[in-house]
Write a structure and sequence with these properties.
single chain; alpha+beta; seven-stranded mixed sheet; six-stranded mixed sheet; 16 helices; 31 strands; 26% strand
């Protein structure tokens, strides 16, 4: 089935290109973003942040701020009634710095005032005396440095051992790779509203992607029982990571509890850059061994993740990096050392494809080196080594899910290349750098590169993945209640499609999310498609049984002999034919169900274990034009083949893939949150260069392989992270092909794209 056939799919149900329910509200400007919230008697919050990367706090004087007209409250670490530290995985991050500042932008105090300008002026008036300390910004030096935290500088070490360490290949290539710090750069900066409750509790309205975890963290910080804290999810303006750092929410709740008034915080773009987590900057050393035919024999690697000041998701990111360090290739012997360490750099955490993206750039660089040394076509070399169902990962886990890596790679390799432009401005030649680029057409070289990537779905290493959903049907309409947050991944649309497919009801509503509902877990790793979608499907099937059983009993047949389609219930023999509305007869039907995938296990002391529930794969061929004199790069085309399990919403799937590829192009060429001695330079959208529509290449989705994963609901796989993981490596591969340069750093700097002589 080609893409146009998919877009011409049915009007509703699974397989239909059902549009998102919030499309109209977003286009008309009525979508309820957190920054738009309002309440009677509203106060405004501002947070004082550290201007230093590492310092000892000698004193904090809030007198001047507290005495300013219009200021209603000032809070510091001394005003935190409960847990002074928080963290989704490890509680090592203070709500407010007390004795030490460990990164630039760390919160010191917060102010509530009756006007936002007053709040900012009051925050600036807080006098903090610092003893500036030497920051540790090089992760390699963190091992020997003085401890930056009571838990030490080493967060986790994973030594993976697989096979015989004494085996060597006939051909050996080595490489050193560096991946920069990528920011999630959400469309809307963090914002929220905290409203005190009559019972002494508080309600927090924010764009949380994991509301129940945020509620529990907030309750522990406020010294309250969880049932006295409620998190209400407002409109999420996109998320490619942990959308809301609790460091924004906790000061809000503290101020609301202290003042007894609603308090609102709308972060500036600079505060957003300084406050939330970023992709881990990573240093990778690789040595690949192969035989004379290019078949991999052994991979040795060292992977060092810079976690920044606090642990956050670094342990999970390191596990993914180490487990996928060899890529979707068969490697009989692998020896990987992975570390995640604390530094005084900005905090790192969950960003789409964490861990997997960094190693993909490195192992694909190694495959290009190996192909060049052996004189083998880069695509052919990869095909000789690709993973398939039944093979072993270096963790010892058997790949039981569909793994059509060879088919994906052949699809992009065989797809026709874009035509070469003519060396004439009149023919529409676009130079790298734009139509007004300073280069000359004669300096342009075209390169073609390949990359294959893999990611895990759901949590890993024993994470208890569970979600709960309720489906109610009344008066010909259905309502889905599930705390799975819609972050742009399309869950709310999918939930509607599932109910339409199962119950034949076209009008389906998805309730807004808050913590009064049972938990559904975080919106990461595409898990809501699997876990929350599975819960919705089970609940809908239970309602279906309630609906059909009376009819089946009346006509003396089983419910399996009845089908629902287009709002009608019919039997296999045509004897029974009625509408869903008539069968309901004014009743309300409802059911609640859970979905919990099979358990996983932590990696052991040798990096072995069945740590992952499922895997997804992608192959991309990149075509780039490079000005070999200026080092500027234009991505001409990205051909994508992806393992999707089953297409549930064709248009939405295509959009997710195209967005992921574009994000990956930004990682490859422009996005790098730069620091100097731990201080973030230019924390704004001028200094941090996001790709725009003018930078987006022509993206060709050439093959969507639908081999259903039998253990996943609907057989579908996560779709958003894998193109982000794979596309930066493909762009780097294409630039290598164009220039002859090693290209071992992302983003690719202009000097790295200037061709070597005679290339």
């Amino acid at each position: 089935m080609d893409r146009q056939d998919r877009l011409d799919s049915p009007a509703h149900g699974l397989g239909a290109s059902l549009p998102p329910a919030d499309t109209r509200a977003k286009t008309e400007g009525t979508f309820p973003y957190a920054a738009d919230l309002w309440a009677e008697g509203l106060l405004w919050a501002a947070v004082l942040r550290s201007p230093h990367a590492h310092a000892r706090i000698v004193s904090i004087d809030t007198t001047a701020a507290a005495e300013m007209p219009g200021v209603r409250a000032v809070v510091t670490h001394a005003d935190v009634p409960g847990n002074a530290a928080h963290g989704r995985r490890i509680a090592d991050r203070p709500v407010f710095a007390a004795e030490l500042v460990r990164h630039h932008g760390e919160p010191i105090a917060a102010v509530a005032a009756d006007h936002p300008d007053t709040a900012r002026l009051a925050a600036a008036a807080i006098a903090v005396e610092y003893e500036i300390l030497e920051p540790v910004t090089d992760p390699e030096k963190a091992f020997a440095a003085e401890p930056l935290h009571p838990d030490g500088n080493l967060i986790r070490h994973i030594p993976l051992r697989f096979g015989d360490p004494d085996v060597a290949g006939e051909v050996i290539v080595e490489g050193l790779y560096r991946i920069g710090r990528q920011d999630p750069a959400p469309i809307g900066a963090e914002a929220g509203l905290a409203v005190p409750r009559p019972d002494g509790g508080v309600e927090i309205y924010t764009a949380s992607t994991d509301p129940h975890t945020d509620r529990d963290l907030a309750a522990a910080c406020f010294g309250l029982e969880p049932d006295r804290v409620k998190v209400v999810v407002t409109g999420v303006p996109g998320a490619t990571g942990d959308r809301e750092d609790p460091g924004f929410q906790l000061p809000l709740g503290l101020l609301a509890l202290k003042t007894g008034c609603p308090v609102k915080l709308a972060a500036t773009r600079e505060e957003s850059f300084l406050g939330h987590a970023h992709r881990h900057p990573t240093l990778l050393r690789y040595r690949h061994h192969a035989d004379a035919d290019g078949r991999l024999v052994k991979v040795e690697a060292q992977i060092l993740l810079d976690a920044g000041a606090y642990a956050d998701a670094s342990s999970e990111s390191l596990a993914a990096a180490v487990a996928f360090a060899c890529g979707p290739y068969v490697v009989p012997h692998a020896f990987i050392e992975g570390w995640a360490v604390r530094t005084n750099n900005p905090p790192s955490g969950h960003v789409r494809g964490e861990g997997a993206m960094q190693v993909c750039a490195a192992y694909e660089g190694q495959m290009d080196k190996l192909a060049a040394k052996l004189g083998i076509d880069p695509a052919e070399l990869r095909l000789r080594n690709v993973l398939a169902t039944g093979d072993l990962l270096p963790t010892g886990q058997t790949v039981t899910c569909p793994a059509p890596v060879a088919e994906l790679l052949r699809s992009v390799r065989d797809f026709p290349l874009p035509t070469l432009p003519k060396d004439s401005p009149e023919e529409g030649w676009l130079l790298p750098g734009g139509p007004e680029g300073a280069g000359e057409p004669g300096a342009i070289r075209r390169g073609v590169g390949y990359a294959v990537g893999m990611v895990h779905m759901l949590g890993a290493e024993g994470t208890d993945e569970v979600s709960t959903a309720t489906v109610k049907v009344q008066n010909g309409a259905a309502t889905v209640i599930c705390a799975a947050v819609e972050t742009g991944q399309g869950f709310s649309t999918l939930a509607r499609q599932i109910v339409q497919e199962t119950l034949g009801i076209e009008e389906v509503h998805v309730a807004s999310v808050d913590t009064d509902q049972p938990p559904a877990g975080p919106a990461t790793h595409g898990r809501h498609t699997w876990v929350s979608g599975g819960a919705v499907e089970r609940a809908a099937k239970m309602v279906r049984t309630q609906l059909l059983q009376p009819l089946a009993h009346k006509f003396g047949m089983s419910t399996e002999l009845l089908q629902i389609a287009d709002g009608k219930i019919t039997s296999y023999d045509g004897v029974l034919s009625t509408t869903v509305t008539e069968a309901m007869d004014g009743k309300e039907l409802w059911a609640t169900a859970q979905c919990r995938p099979h358990p996983t296990e932590p990696l052991d002391a040798a990096g072995q274990g069945d740590a992952f529930v499922g895997l997804a794969f992608c192959a991309i061929r990149a075509v780039v034009d490079v000005d070999i004199e200026l080092g500027s790069v234009r991505v001409v085309e990205m051909a994508v083949a992806q393992d999707v399990g089953r297409v549930l919403n064709p248009r939405q799937l295509a959009t997710r893939i195209e967005a992921g590829v574009t994000q990956g192009v930004g990682t490859a060429l422009t996005e790098n949150l730069r620091t100097m001695r731990g201080i973030v330079r230019h924390p704004d959208l001028t200094g941090y260069a996001l790709p725009t529509s003018l930078d987006a290449p022509d993206i060709r989705i050439v093959n969507l392989v639908e081999e259903r994963d039998v253990v996943a609901p609907f057989g579908a796989k996560a779709a958003s992270a894998i193109p982000v993981v794979t596309s930066p490596a493909a762009v780097a591969s294409a630039v290598r092909a164009a220039t002859g340069r090693p290209v071992n750093r992302l983003p690719i700097r202009p000097q790295a794209a200037v061709a070597v002589p005679n290339s």
